[in-house]
């Protein structure tokens, strides 16, 4: 089933075009990897899908993007869109609160007040993000005391706590060591059964390890998208081949 | 190891800069020593406890009584009132300027607030006497509108520019990521402001309140004009009061140099100096705690 669908999606920042005619489907429960050099529009695509780009005064969107067949710009309320489509940013950025409160922040916003249901959500989210065992005895400590890799998993748990349907990852491992990266990749694989996930990464190999399908972006254009194994072994476009084999970018 | 200088000019400039830096500290120390020298003489005649805690300020009766408790209470009452008025206004204005207002209005408001800071306090005192005091007299049915409340309202306006600009700085320096992280979880703009941005800016807000208090408690001209200047123990904000600063300003001209009245006014100066020193220290602590 198609979860997210964009057709002829264009995004501008002031007069500069950041995404050109993107037509792309993402199926339910799949992990779509998006690779491409920086400035190719990967992050912009993610930030368009949960409408965070609108925080920049000069941004403008043309074309369509749908979630479950509903236009996200006109038919879905922006707050529920952001709840349903969660995002994990490149830098692990906890809120200046305790570990517990960081995760309870979202559920509290959406009206959950009871302490035991909050505790349940916090525990489940932390387990899903593969962080529970490391922090279960120190939930009241400041989130800033965690290591970078733990903070990033905390941010994933925070995103999961509002029970999204889609999780967007914007280069989630760019600042992390290989072991933390591995833990996050394993968490993503476990989350497959419940979530649709889009992973933007600068690390070509990460997409090969984690994603079902991979899309290659270049200068705001979608060059090609296909089953990960095919993209990596027999790309149709020469530019994809060049990028994957490290000849540029 | 001795530092080597590249040239004589280098040596001279470094020493000159050092002297300028040292001079500011030296001036503060000199002022304090001067205050102490003049003020401490009082305590050969009056004990510190009766100076601070006795309720009668009759400096020219015979025998004179130097109890500054009513003056301290006057200062506290006026300051407290001013802060109660100016802090909510200041926080709201700062949030509006930094988070809500479109760019054109933001620039306009910011220069407007800077202009408010540039109004001489005597002009505010004028406005207080002409408009505010009669209005208060009519609203509350008093015999005179020159009350602590009038002083509080006028001083609130005086403290506002300081409070707004420091809180605005604090809000602007909250990392953008906090805001995006919160919005990305489906929070509304307002939820993000009061659950994330304001708590993250809280040390700046506390510092702003402290500096606002410092500004208000040291203010003299406007309070001298509009608080009614009665050195009595205030029981309500609708009574005339007299502040520490106004007492010095009003009585210094008529106090005979070298008399105990004269020394008492300097002793009040010492108290004010200590109060503003402590307030500035606290404000500084809050600001630095926030920077960590």
TrEMBL record, chain A:
<dbReference type="InterPro" id="IPR003593">
    <property type="entry name" value="AAA+_ATPase"/>
</dbReference>
<dbReference type="Pfam" id="PF00005">
    <property type="entry name" value="ABC_tran"/>
</dbReference>
<keyword id="KW-0067">ATP-binding</keyword>
<keyword id="KW-0813">Transport</keyword>
<dbReference type="InterPro" id="IPR003439">
    <property type="entry name" value="ABC_transporter-like_ATP-bd"/>
</dbReference>
<dbReference type="GO" id="GO:0005524">
    <property type="term" value="F:ATP binding"/>
</dbReference>
<dbReference type="GO" id="GO:0005315">
    <property type="term" value="F:phosphate transmembrane transporter activity"/>
</dbReference>
<keyword id="KW-0547">Nucleotide-binding</keyword>
<dbReference type="GO" id="GO:0016887">
    <property type="term" value="F:ATP hydrolysis activity"/>
</dbReference>
<dbReference type="InterPro" id="IPR027417">
    <property type="entry name" value="P-loop_NTPase"/>
</dbReference>
<dbReference type="InterPro" id="IPR017871">
    <property type="entry name" value="ABC_transporter-like_CS"/>
</dbReference>
<dbReference type="GO" id="GO:0016020">
    <property type="term" value="C:membrane"/>
</dbReference>
<protein>
    <recommendedName>
        <fullName>ABC transporter domain-containing protein</fullName>
    </recommendedName>
</protein>
<dbReference type="GO" id="GO:0035435">
    <property type="term" value="P:phosphate ion transmembrane transport"/>
</dbReference>
<dbReference type="InterPro" id="IPR005670">
    <property type="entry name" value="PstB-like"/>
</dbReference>
<feature type="domain" description="ABC transporter">
    <location>
        <begin position="4"/>
        <end position="244"/>
    </location>
</feature>
Automatic annotation (TrEMBL), chain B:
<dbReference type="GO" id="GO:0005315">
    <property type="term" value="F:phosphate transmembrane transporter activity"/>
</dbReference>
<protein>
    <recommendedName>
        <fullName>Phosphate transport system permease protein</fullName>
    </recommendedName>
</protein>
<feature type="transmembrane region" description="Helical">
    <location>
        <begin position="68"/>
        <end position="95"/>
    </location>
</feature>
<keyword id="KW-0472">Membrane</keyword>
<keyword id="KW-1133">Transmembrane helix</keyword>
<feature type="transmembrane region" description="Helical">
    <location>
        <begin position="115"/>
        <end position="136"/>
    </location>
</feature>
<comment type="similarity">
    <text>Belongs to the binding-protein-dependent transport system permease family. CysTW subfamily.</text>
</comment>
<feature type="transmembrane region" description="Helical">
    <location>
        <begin position="193"/>
        <end position="217"/>
    </location>
</feature>
<keyword id="KW-0812">Transmembrane</keyword>
<keyword id="KW-1003">Cell membrane</keyword>
<dbReference type="InterPro" id="IPR000515">
    <property type="entry name" value="MetI-like"/>
</dbReference>
<feature type="transmembrane region" description="Helical">
    <location>
        <begin position="12"/>
        <end position="36"/>
    </location>
</feature>
<feature type="transmembrane region" description="Helical">
    <location>
        <begin position="262"/>
        <end position="283"/>
    </location>
</feature>
<dbReference type="Pfam" id="PF00528">
    <property type="entry name" value="BPD_transp_1"/>
</dbReference>
<feature type="transmembrane region" description="Helical">
    <location>
        <begin position="148"/>
        <end position="172"/>
    </location>
</feature>
<keyword id="KW-0592">Phosphate transport</keyword>
<dbReference type="InterPro" id="IPR035906">
    <property type="entry name" value="MetI-like_sf"/>
</dbReference>
<comment type="function">
    <text>Part of the binding-protein-dependent transport system for phosphate; probably responsible for the translocation of the substrate across the membrane.</text>
</comment>
<keyword id="KW-0813">Transport</keyword>
<dbReference type="GO" id="GO:0006817">
    <property type="term" value="P:phosphate ion transport"/>
</dbReference>
<dbReference type="InterPro" id="IPR051124">
    <property type="entry name" value="Phosphate_Transport_Permease"/>
</dbReference>
<feature type="domain" description="ABC transmembrane type-1">
    <location>
        <begin position="72"/>
        <end position="283"/>
    </location>
</feature>
């Amino acid at each position: 089933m198609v979860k997210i669908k964009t057709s002829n999606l264009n995004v501008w920042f002031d007069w500069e075009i950041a995404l050109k005619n993107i037509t792309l489907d993402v199926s339910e429960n799949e992990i779509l990897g998006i690779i491409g050099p920086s400035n190719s529009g990967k992050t912009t695509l993610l930030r368009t899908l949960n409408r965070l780009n609108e925080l920049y005064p000069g941004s403008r969107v043309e074309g369509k993007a749908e979630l479950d067949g509903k236009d996200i710009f006109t038919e879905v309320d922006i707050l529920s869109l952001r709840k349903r489509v969660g995002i994990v940013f490149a830098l692990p950025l906890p809120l200046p609160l305790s570990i517990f409160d960081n995760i309870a922040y979202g559920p509290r916003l959406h009206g959950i007040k009871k302490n035991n249901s909050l505790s349940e959500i916090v525990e489940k989210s932390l387990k899903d993000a593969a962080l529970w065992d490391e922090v279960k005895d120190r939930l009241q400590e400041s989130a800033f005391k965690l290591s970078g890799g733990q903070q990033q998993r905390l941010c994933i748990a925070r995103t999961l706590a509002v029970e999204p349907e889609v999780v967007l990852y914007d280069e989630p491992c760019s600042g992390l060591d290989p072991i933390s990266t591995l833990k996050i990749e394993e968490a993503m694989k476990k989350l497959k059964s419940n979530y649709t996930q889009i992973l933007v990464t600068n690390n070509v190999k990460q997409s090969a390890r984690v994603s079902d399908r991979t899309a290659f972006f270049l200068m705001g254009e979608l060059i090609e998208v296909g089953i990960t194994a095919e993209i990596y072994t027999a790309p149709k476009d020469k530019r994809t081949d060049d990028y994957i084999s490290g000849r540029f970018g | 190891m001795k530092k080597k200088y590249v040239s004589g000019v280098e040596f001279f400039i470094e020493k000159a800069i050092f002297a300028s830096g040292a001079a500011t500290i030296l001036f503060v120390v000199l002022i304090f020593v001067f205050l102490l020298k003049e003020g401490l003489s009082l305590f050969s005649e009056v004990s510190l406890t009766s100076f601070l805690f006795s309720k009668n300020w009759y400096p020219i009766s015979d025998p004179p009584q130097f109890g500054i408790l009513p003056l301290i209470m006057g200062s506290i009452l006026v300051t407290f009132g001013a802060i109660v008025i100016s802090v909510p206004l200041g926080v709201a204005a700062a949030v509006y300027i930094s988070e809500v207002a479109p760019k054109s209005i933001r620039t306009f408001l910011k220069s407007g607030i800077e202009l408010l800071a540039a109004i001489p306090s005597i002009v505010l005192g004028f406005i207080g006497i002409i408009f505010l005091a009669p209005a208060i007299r009519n609203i509350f049915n008093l015999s005179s509108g020159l009350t602590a409340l009038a002083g509080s309202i006028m001083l609130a306006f005086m403290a506002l520019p300081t409070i707004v600009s420091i809180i605005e700085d604090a809000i602007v320096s909250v990392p953008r990521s906090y805001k995006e992280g919160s919005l990305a979880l489906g929070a509304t703009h307002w939820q993000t402001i009061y659950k994330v941005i304001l708590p993250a800016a809280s040390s700046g807000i506390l510092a702003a309140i402290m500096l606002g208090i410092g500004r208000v408690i040291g203010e003299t001209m406007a309070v001298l004009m509009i608080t009614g200047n009665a050195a009595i123990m205030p029981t309500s904000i609708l009574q005339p009061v007299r502040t520490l600063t106004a007492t010095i300003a009003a009585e210094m001209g008529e106090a005979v140099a070298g008399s105990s009245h004269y020394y008492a006014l300097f002793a009040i100066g010492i108290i004010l100096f200590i109060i503003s020193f402590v307030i500035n220290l606290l404000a500084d602590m809050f600001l630095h705690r926030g920077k960590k």
